[in-house]
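Thread: quick sanity check before group meeting

JM: Hey all, I'm pulling together slides for Thursday and realized we never actually wrote out the predicted structure for the chain we discussed last week. Dropping the sequence here so it's in one place. If anyone has concerns about the input, flag it before I start.
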Amino acid sequence: MDTAELQNKVRELRLQGRSPKEIARALKVSPSVVAPLVRAIAAESTGTAEPEVVGCWVNVGWSAGLGVDPARGWVDEQPGTAEGMVSVLVARRHTWDRMTLCGYLVDAYCLGVKNAVGPEVCDDRELRRYREYFFGEYAGWQEVPIELARHLVFGSIDYARKLGFEPHEDFAPAADALGKWEGDAAITFGRDGKPFYMEGPYDDAAKVLRTLRRSLADDEFDYVTGG
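JM (edit): ok, ran it. Output follows.
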């Protein structure tokens, strides 16, 4: 299958609402082959490199323990109602009646992006339903500027990399929804500026602690594990 034929098949499946992973499985190719074609097709649909942002949301309480540049004017509607785990959801225009949706789970205190979903194509009703599910573990969500989403996600990745951690492998296909990152986050990560690791249900806690100890002394970070 040549490149033009592959792109046409990707375009057809994308218009059916298939995700990049589903397209890769259907065409029996690697997701890394499909991802750039999906991005190119998304750009074609709007005629711009960055499709219009339809909406951007984070959980309330997103700022707990973080330092935020007050000049940005970013308001947390219910500060203190979350602790380090921040969920970010971004919707961009796909076609006139459909959107491309990407979501990110951010450990803002230590590990950076722990998981990511999308891009998924949906309509307004599917977006509303998914948003309810996506923020179901929090006290609620709030709409925010895409700039805040960028600083939370990319900034957490930069912070985690300094500690020795890379973002989840599912982040790469979802990264473009955030737009271009210039660096220099307006957010200070870690809990009150200090790395803090809290073990999650799927973590290899021993590996995380070994990684932290490669660059930090024990008194330079805090942690809580189930063991």
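AS: nice. Strands lie at 53-59, 67-68, 85-95, 98-107, 112-122, 141-143, 187-188, 196-198, 222-224. The CA atoms of residues 86 and 106 lie 5 Å apart.
JM: adding both to the slides.
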